Amino acid sequence: MKCKYCGCMDSKVVDSRETEDGTSIRRRRECIQCGRRYTTYETVEHTPIFVIKKGGVRQEFDVNKIRSGIIKACEKRPVPITRIDALVSSIERTIYNNGDQEVTSEYIGDLIMAGLKEIDDVAYVRFASVYRQFKDIDTFMEEISGILSKRKND
Are 24 and 18 in contact, with CB atoms under 8 Å apart? Predict the structure, then answer.
């Protein structure tokens, strides 16, 4: 690993530990030449996954878009950020474990909706109204009726 201070290619690892989320390893290194210490991170390299949007356009998968959408849906709701992070991680893991290099935006939307349904009904309806592009109040009411009938059955 090249020293960021002097450019020397020789260093020794002084300390290694996993990050809190377990997705990478943090290493403290010491340069053999100048003796200064610096931190590096080792992560698993993912094969890029592309999302096929409704119009057929392909975009590289960005987990931050999922996080952003879920946070907007949960805005002003009693949903802890740890629960949101767990849902985002679960969705990301499902997409990568799928094994496909391309997934549809509908598939991702369905995963998000299934997760939100378990977390918070209001967040679920908020997300569904945008994702399914509710055209009128009748469509909105059908979705709410489905949630209410499921509650009665449970």
Answer: yes
